Description:
The complex is a heterodimer.
Chain A: H1 2-13, H2 17-48, H3 63-90, H4 93-124, H5 133-152, H6 158-172, H7 175-185, H8 205-248, H9 254-260
Helix pairs in contact in A: 2-8, 3-4, 3-6, 3-8, 4-5, 4-8, 5-6, 5-7
Chain B: H1 3-28, H2 30-33, H3 39-45, E1 53-59, E2 71-77, E3 82-88, E4 100-108, E5 111-120, H4 128-136
Parallel strand pairs in B: 3-5
Antiparallel strand pairs in B: 1-2, 1-4, 2-3, 4-5
Amino acid sequence: MYLYKFGKMIFHKYANPTRFLKLASTIQPWAAAATIGFLLAGLYFALLSSPGDYQQGETVRIMYIHVPAAWMAMFCYTAMAAAAAVGLIWKHPVAELAARATAPIGACFTFLALFTGSLWGKPMWGTWWVWDARLTSVLILFFLYLGYMALSNAFDDPARGSKASSILALVGFVNVPIIKFSVDWWNTLHQPASVIKMDGPAIHASMLIPLILMAFAFKAFYIWVMLMRIRGEINEGKIRALRLRQVHGGPPSRTTILEKTTEGAR
Amino acid sequence: MKRKHKRLTFVGIALLLLAAAAALILAAFEENIVFFFSPTDILAQKPTPDRRLRLGGLVEEGTVTKPKGGVITFRVTDTAQTVPVSYKGILPDLFREGQGIVAEGRYINNVFVADEVLAKHDENYMPPEVAEAIKKSGQWQGKEKVKTK
């Protein structure tokens, strides 16, 4: 009960963009430091201090980029859908911005996963691309990100764009479990899960360590860039409000509304 | 009920219905979503030669022949049934006996004539020394399971 109240307090407190900006500027340098630290350690293990694979040889090192990127592709979509839901249901202004800020980052991770997967597929499978359930569902994820971005920027009024795109984000979330379980539900060219599975990872520790380090680096990078993008969105909103005030002599703009909702959820 | 609670209920129900719809669609298209058929499927279906399809399974040990005029033959097994395959072309690096492969082509006169062979690799990653040690101790289970559907 106490935890619930505490959570509720945080939830409402950081619905105020100005307060959120303060929190963001505190977290951001830590996220940046964590990204660089984990990336250096991860790359050292991934490229220098880990063995080749018994079957794939040195080519296995593509995994240390490909797999964390693919995890982040799904993680970012989940985060985006959750933020979109909070924005839609509780009208939480910062959650809406977080969803908008996450989309391009998730799209980049998805592209990276598809691209490195293709480079890996050619030498190992013998093909750049096949239309199996895993590859196809990840390509759909990429298009969902692009669709979300296009839709959220398609309206002159950002509030309307946010509503329409939030609904798209939630509908598209159906695809995330399909991606995860595609390799179990159907036979695919892509191999089944190696790390996140019921009976423990099927990767030797010497290869699992660099993989986990890289995954942490990618996650810290996401937090870093996402906060940066939210700050950008908030500032952009402020500029838009100022311009509107200059032109019209002061109809209430979205940002002034945002600023007033210190209590957040209505 | 407050408005936000109404919205929460609405979004929750909508998502549940959506998930159910997606599950039904995927179940209906099951046959089209599978990437390949196992030897058991092929022998049960007896596909006609005009149909292009994919065959997946393990390359049976000791069945790979030396290329004659560029044509290589081997048998693909799912440990229950086997199908003979003939293929003319370049094999992927991972192709070897006991390896999982997916071949694309047509089933003609009880032989699968492939025009493309892809290697499938399993979910196990380990350094060569570890693989060697496991093989020596007799605990090797490297062969992937082929799903029969």
